[in-house]
Hints:
The chain has 371 residues and is mainly α. Helices cover 53% and strands 11% of the residues.
Amino acid sequence: MIDKLQQLWLGQMVREFTDICFQYQLNLQPPVLELSGATNQLGCWLPEQRAIRISRHLIMEHPWDVVLMVLKHEMAHQVCSELYVCHKTGHGKDFQQACEMLGVPSPYNRSSGDLAGVVFQAPEDRQTAAGRRIIDRISKLLALAGSDNEHEAALAMQRATEFLHRHNLDQATDVNPSACTRLIINTRSKQIPTFRRAICAILRDYFFVQVICSSIYDPQTNNSFKTIELLGRAENVPVAEHCYHFLEQQLAGLWQKNRHKFQGNSRTAKNSYYLGLLHGFAEKMATQAKKNDINGQTSLKTSTPGALAIIRDNQLQDFVSFHFPRLKKRSARGVRIYSQPYDEAVSTGKTIVLHQSVADKKDGIQGLLRG
């Protein structure tokens, strides 16, 4: 069984190699892909044999996105050997240029990029002092938004969104090379339902992150699962990630509380209710955004504050292109809804107040704001 699974891993790496070449428009001939039993050297490029070896230990012990970074590191060595005709095996200027071509980020573009130590390195502090102050302030405001007093809760959420809004007006001028970061949410699902795409739209429009719906391979089950990737400024991404988990939790809780009111196909009714809640919440965010836009700086008549900030942020655009050079937009398909649960949920959605709950402390903003 293990031998069969390892053959499937090799087949997946062949597909990943082909896809990377397509995405980054590289004319590389496929090498021989092998698995090794090494635990320290996670990958290596062997120019004489035209082979890339990847450690079985790496695949068994680490997420697939880490495996892809090591594979890209070795492909960068292949670029040096075969495209640059460079016989040196180091990590100098040619290698760094190859990493740039392949979208290999730090720390995987270093000399330790194919060694076990790089996987266990503590993540770099990608948050500026100003960014840490932003996150701290948002955390405190979201905690206040959990107040039982409806007026106090709404005011705290409004202040939190206003604070994010004001902060992001000038962010596009920040040229800090480590200002942007990327976070992958693995849905463990084969599809991204319409309500999750609606959450993604809210994150993009009001929480200042670019959202990419993609997929990632799971070597343990030989399946691919849909992912939601958040790319943005280091202080915006954890707030958006918290909002994602918070909204999913609220949708499920409110449906369980109110499902007895609706008849008909339970799946369609549930989906209709979810979409109604999110529509109401989005309307509430839009109203707050207009209040925050006192001087008309974000042209909210034609664009949401988050979407406009993303367009204006050249550094974030470059960061997104670095990871997704052939990004394509797909239009959403129409979805069947029931009017009764949808209409009722719109009103309920306008009462949702984003805050920190006990459950969120594990997977939400609390768990991401350390360091």
